Amino acid sequence: MTTPHTAIENMKQIESGEYERQRVPDSKLKGWKSFLGMYAGEHAAGTEFVIGPLFLTTGVSAFDLIVGLLLGNLMAVLSWRFLTAEIGTKFRYTLYFHLEKICGKKLVTYYNVANGVLFCFLAGAMITVSATAVGIPFNMEMPQLTDTLPNGMTWIIIVLVLGVLISVIAAKGYSTVAKAANWMSPFIVLAFIASGIVALYQLEISSFSEFWNLWGEGSDPFPGQIKYTFWHVFLWSWFANAAMHIGMSDLTVFRFAKSPKLGWTTAGGIYLGHYIAWIAAALLYAVYLKSPEAQGFLSNGLAPTVAPGPLAYNALGVFGILAVILAGWSTANPTIYRAGLAFQAVLPKLSTFWVTILAGSVATIAGLFPAFAMKLLDFVALYGFILAPIGAIIVFDYFFSKKAGIQAFYAEKYNTNFNPAVLWAWLISFGVFYFISVQFDIFLSFVTLPTWLFCGVLFLLFSKYYQNKK
Q: Higher model confidence: residue 443 or residue 305?
């Protein structure tokens, strides 16, 4: 039964066009162009200018980098297509509303806060990336690989201005975010391809064998970095967006898709961004490593700086600066949009516009601290490890609830605000595998999948126990 309060709330959602707490109507569904443009813009992004070079700092070999990325990204696309898009187009709810039906409002509130804050930190890293390009005309001192705090007033002003602009676009809603991505993505993709070609020319590489030998059998990692193998690259690239696919965050995006087949559009963004762009950015860094400045860092036992703006500027000039600015912009937009929807579930009285502005403000503050960008490999692995297991709750509830003899959408069916099965499943799976990672010094991406599976199985077992008991 619809109460007057619910009717008013639904009217507000219809007016905003976001449908935060109801199924997206068929009249509002979008075709493949919206998703292809958004994913190309989001994943051929400013952070790719950081991630590509960071792979080189780990001393990765040619086979491990090229083949590891190829297969790891394939697994990510399959995860989006057969898990996220499948469930997203079935129910057409945001992640937060869907999760609320399983967990209950009280429990999902804590998740929404954690999810929103982590997305803000990720968006902050993207603002940092754009700032390294904007700062070039002002002769701004670039952040070093080991920097944590802002390094000057110029840096602070540039980050604040970028943060305001990006937040306003994200606050306009999904349609505006998609339009912005469609406009920016061709330019960004062209810039990555061009920068890779220029870098090959600067490195005097004219054959595939010379390209392969650029990395060869790999090298020792830079100071402060760990050595990456094939499995590091494969699993990290699979779970770089774990929160979005196996973590189900992109239910929020795919609820607008006409068909689950649109999950394949992620391949456009992933292979342009997480394959071509990462390798192109690594080539840019390979050029920089031959410079006297980089050799000076290495001779002093320090890791050379990984600042995307100067790397792109050295290859493409002003065109490179614009590419880095727009690349960071296009990725921060949907990330802040997602964070705003997370905060919307915690602050339902605020409009989507203002909670997104709040998310953008947190992201801008995070962007002031370069550590989020300079330690991006570690941060992305951590945030995926934290958020992905919650996605297992949704996946196992959808695919296995009937076979396990439990009630799907338990919290909604029994009108409860707290489902203990979810809490215990996440706490135990997270605690056990985080302990294993720390105790035995295991890279977090190695234990993300076991944690996800363990969480899903525990959820079914605990649900069986609590539901039978009740």
A: 443
Q: Which residues pair with 30 in a beta bridge?
A: 257
In the block, tokens 């030998």 appear at 213
Q: What one-letter code names the amino acid at 416? A: T
216-230, 377-391, 393-407 — which one is most confidently predicted on average?
393-407
Query: Is the Cα dihedral 262, 89, 246, 188 positive or negative?
Result: positive
CB 374 within 8 A of CB 305: no
Distance of CA 176 to the CA centre of its chain: 19
pLDDT of 363 higher than 50: yes
The domains located in the chain, with CATH, are: 28-376 (1.10.4160.10)
Q: Which residue pairs, CB below 8 angstroms and at least 24 apart, start in 87-90?
A: 87/248, 87/251, 87/394, 87/395, 87/398, 88/250, 88/251, 88/252, 88/253, 88/254, 88/255, 88/257, 88/260, 89/254, 89/255, 89/257, 89/258, 89/259, 89/260, 89/262, 90/260, 90/398
3-state secondary structure of 219: coil
Cα separation, 319 vs 327, whole angstroms: 12
Question: Do residues 335 and 116 lie in contact, with contact meaning Cβ atoms separated by under 8 Å?
Answer: no
pLDDT at position 4 is 32
How many C-beta atoms lie closer than 10 Å to residue 1's C-beta?
A: 3
Structure tokens at 339: 């964070």
Total residues belonging to the chain? 470
Residue whose C-alpha is closest to residue 308's, from 40, 51, 57: 51
Residue 257 β-bridge partners = 30
User: Rounded to an integer, what distance in angstroms lies between the CA atom of residue 153 and that of residue 155?
Assistant: 5
Most confident of 110-119, 350-359, 410-419: 410-419
- Classify residue 81 by its DSSP letter: I
Distances (CA, A) of 339 to 28, 97, 104, 246: 22, 14, 20, 17
* Residue given tokens 């600015």 in the structure block: 325
- Split at pLDDT 50, 70, 90, the class of 233 is very high
Tokens of 255: 């609820």
Distance in angstroms (rounded) separating the CA atoms of residues 401 and 407: 6
Residue 266 to residue 164: CA distance in whole angstroms: 28
Express each pLDDT in 22-46 by its tens digit: 888 877 888 888 888 778 767 777 6
Q: Is 232 in contact with 443 (CB distance < 8 Å)?
A: yes
Minimal CA–CA distance to 250: which of 387, 111, 51? 387
pLDDT tens digits along 65-109: 999 999 999 999 999 999 999 999 999 998 888 999 999 988 888
Residue closest to 269 by CA, chosen among 37, 38, 39:
39
Q: Encoding tokens for residue 116?
A: 């929103």
